Amino acid sequence: MKEKIKKLFGDTKEIFQNYKFTFILIVINTILMLFLYDEYDYNELLTALILSNILFFSVETFIKKDKPKLFLLLISMITSGILNHILYETNNTPRIPLLIIGIYIFIVLISIYKISKQEKNFANYFLKAVNNNITLAIASFALELGLLFITFTISELLIPDSSVDIFLKMEIILFGLFIVPGEILCLTNTKKETLKPIKFLSCYILLPIVLISLFIIYSYFIKIIVTSTIPSNQIFTIITILFVITIPTYILIINYDDNKFIKEVLNKLPYTLIPIIIMAMYSLGIRIYHHGITITRYYGIIIISLEIIFFILSLKRNHKYLHNLLLFSAILVLISMTIPYINCVSVSRTSQLNRLTSIYKENTIYDNLSNEEKDIVYSSYQYLINELDSEAYIPAYIAKEKIVNNYIDYTSIRKNISYYNQDENVPVTGYSYIKVLSINEYNKEINNLHLNDLELYDNELNNNLKEIFKDYLYNIIEDGDISNPEIILDDNYKIYLEEFHLSYNKETNKLYSLNINGYLLTK
Question: Average pLDDT of the chain?
Fold first, then answer.
């Protein structure tokens, strides 16, 4: 134990020597925060200190000699001050903050990439970094609880009504002298032994979650193929979350590939992601085709690109190229946030402007546009005017008042019907079984509703019963209200409504959304 403690302190001392100027700056920053936070804007001051800390950390990661390092550190401090002034003291377009944030994220990722290359095995570096961060999080949580207790004790016993001021100062000390230096040690000190629970977490919690999720998603793929339905709007979000869990889990379990099952999973897992990547591309492509590119969809493209890069890098059996995932991530961040004309703001703006002007051309009589075209014009226009400098690029002939008024006229043909059943008692007399029912349909013609959710409850609900249900919907549309929460399908089946929401076009009877919650009763 004595040798382990001695080695730990030796490793920590080495890190402090390599990043001595960064740690000195952190201490100075913390002291400044303690004395200046109530005189200056707290967020502005904190931003300036974070920007300078990041640049100092980056310089000391790449430069080891003191003389050039000191010169670059001086430049870094001046640069941080200028950028902070630009962020807070000038009227910005959306691109300026995006540019600054993108550059700093790029710097952080490239610095971590440089540090990770010192380890021959990236998976091992990643394991140690995760281990260190878990240890830091546990220690920070314990200290946070301690600070809360100390603050409460002081304010109650010694200095009444001072709890906010004391707690804020303690938070500054905790953040500046423990969390920030601790995070640098987490990323750079990879000689520490890993916690044993990390193996349990990665192999017996995260990995089963990934495998079960893959099984569910593949089952969903089979369902939509068999039933010929359009993928859910949420499928891209679910797939993205799956990748966010899968990639770190995959890298972690590489460290435990001595297990036969783990080794087999490592060999097969990348290939199971191919259909999921294709589905993500299809799902995102449909939304871009119908609604254009937004910043969110732009980053959807970035995420899919990273998924493809991860798949390619994972094919090498010794995983020697996995650390390049950080490099590609840094490059994609740089492209998406800083490069003119192809960054996320420029591309999404151009896409929405093209949608707008391709329909609403100069000399076009706006009232002659179809309702669908007006909907596109309105949605694109609303997206664009939310940007600070929208007046500089939206054509002058596109009048705000006309679009808003016509959109309101358009929404007048949209009918919404909602119903909440206040009766908590479900009439079950004469029926033997009751099952919870949930139906959700979007953007369909009423004649083309699949109502697949009904099939999940009983295979005997044939197409004739579905037609009866559709007739019920037609009656609701015609009446504009629900008079009876009971839908008698035939002598054996009845649906009892608990909650009903219907949104449709009164001119075309096109259904925008249908959400039903209730019960299916069977004799």
Answer: 80
| Residue span of the structural domain in which 216 resides | 197-339
- DSSP assignments along 370-428, one per residue: -HHHHHHHHHHHHHHHTSTTGGGTS-TTS-HHHHHHHHHHHHTTEEEEEEE--------
Task: Round to whole Å and give the CA distance between 224 and 221.
Answer: 5
Determine the Cα–Cα distance for residues 520 and 496; give it in Å rounded to an integer.
7
Quote the CA–CA distance of 461 and 298 in Å, as a whole number: 42
Six-digit token pair at 426? 């479900």
Domain shared by 96 and 72, yes or no: yes
Tokens encoding 250: 């995959």
Same domain (yes/no): 156, 16 = yes
> Number of structural domains, the chain?
4
Helices (H), 63-179: 66-89, 95-116, 122-157, 163-174
User: What stretches in the chain show pLDDT beneath 50?
Assistant: 1, 4-5, 8, 405-410, 455-457
Q: Same structural domain for residues 329 and 213?
A: yes
| Four-residue CA torsion sign, 355, 360, 366, 367 | negative
Residues 41 and 174 in one domain: yes
Say what angle helices 180-188 and 20-36 make with each other, to 10 degrees. Answer: 160
Mapped onto helix, strand or coil, the DSSP state of residue 6 is helix
Same domain, 122 and 15: yes
Domain closes at, from 159, 188, 217 = 188
**Is residue 124 domain-shared with residue 250, that is, in the same domain?**
no
pLDDT digits (tens, 9 = 90+) for 3-61: 544 554 555 676 777 788 888 888 888 888 787 777 666 677 777 778 888 888 898 88
Same-domain status, 92 and 238: no
For 285, left (φ over 0), alpha (ψ -120 to 50), or beta? Answer: alpha
Question: How far, in Å, CA of 31 to CA of 326, rounded?
Answer: 34
The DSSP symbol for 339 reads: S
d(CA 234, CA 466): 25
Question: Of 157, 188, 219, which closes a domain?
Answer: 188
> Which tens digits make up the pLDDT trace of 305-318?
999 999 999 987 77
Per-residue tokens: 443: 């953007």
Q: Could you identify the residue written with the tokens 């799902």?
A: 283
- Structure tokens that stand for 258 in this block: 């001595």
